[in-house]
């Protein structure tokens, strides 16, 4: 069994318009944009990262905003809900704030005993705020939202699957422990994690497969401390039969990827070197940062990218 997973590292989704995406996460949800860069495979598209002040692993949601991308179709074989932790007693604040900003499909309920507020993002993505006791992670304080309400980072994520058996086996191999079941949903928790500790598997055997597009999660990343631990995890996965990519340098972390039995793309990402490797913490996310191979084409790339502010 793997013992080096620390919880979630980041979750990467797709969007259809960069300015609207940036405004929603920085203004409506009050997160910090910690990096403004480009898709490593298509430098005409932004890669935007939102998190806490430092972009701590377990707090960062990222987006590829493909201009005018077709909206995805919800279904099985995907991460269906990205869940953020907020302090206990804060959901009435968030309900009022999101209602005032015309956020769609607000729904308050409980999940495994915790209060939850579900809603959808600008491209129809499934999002939730979950009241979480004792979360000591530091929220971003520059967004004008009082610390007693502000997002701490991820709580976890929910998957929709036809059959959860194989993914259950994988998560347990990765160090997660099965804890509770409510209806068709089973919760898994990583002991001693980074706060972004839970994965919920929802079994929907009759639901059609999802179609990726704007609003869909592209991949979900799990955190390890460093490259040495990442190589140990890679070997363990390959020894178990998973087809895992070589290590890829993503500038702010190193990454490996593999496809799960349920169809979800997993990444294992390192906590090092972090988002302050190429800009001071006080100015994270302000300048456009490019991978070295694209730097000679900066003028052309900047001309093709739409401004994030009016």
Question: Considering DSSP H and I runs of 4 or more, what fraction of the residues is helical?
Answer: 10-25%
Number of strands: 16
Order of helices and strands: EHEEEEHEEEEHEEEEHEEEH
CATH architectural name: Roll
Structural class: alpha+beta
What is the CATH level 1 assignment?
Answer: Alpha Beta
Q: What would the CATH topology be?
A: 2,3-Dihydroxybiphenyl 1,2-Dioxygenase, domain 1
Q: What global shape is seen?
A: globular
Q: What's the pLDDT, averaged over the residues?
A: 96
Q: Output the CATH homologous superfamily.
A: 2,3-Dihydroxybiphenyl 1,2-Dioxygenase, domain 1
Largest sheet: 8 strands, mixed
Helix count? 5
Number of domains: 1
* Low-confidence sequence ranges: none
Structure description:
The protein is α+β, with helices and mostly antiparallel strands and 310 residues long. It has one domain: 2,3-Dihydroxybiphenyl 1,2-Dioxygenase, domain 1 (Roll), CATH 3.10.180. The protein has five helices and 16 strands. It has helices spanning 18-28, 91-100, 165-173, 227-239, 298-304, and strands spanning 8-15, 32-39, 42-51, 60-65, 78-86, 104-111, 114-120, 126-131, 153-161, 177-182, 185-189, 198-203, 217-224, 248-249, 253-259, 265-273. The protein has an eight-stranded mixed β-sheet. It holds the Pfam family Glyoxalase.
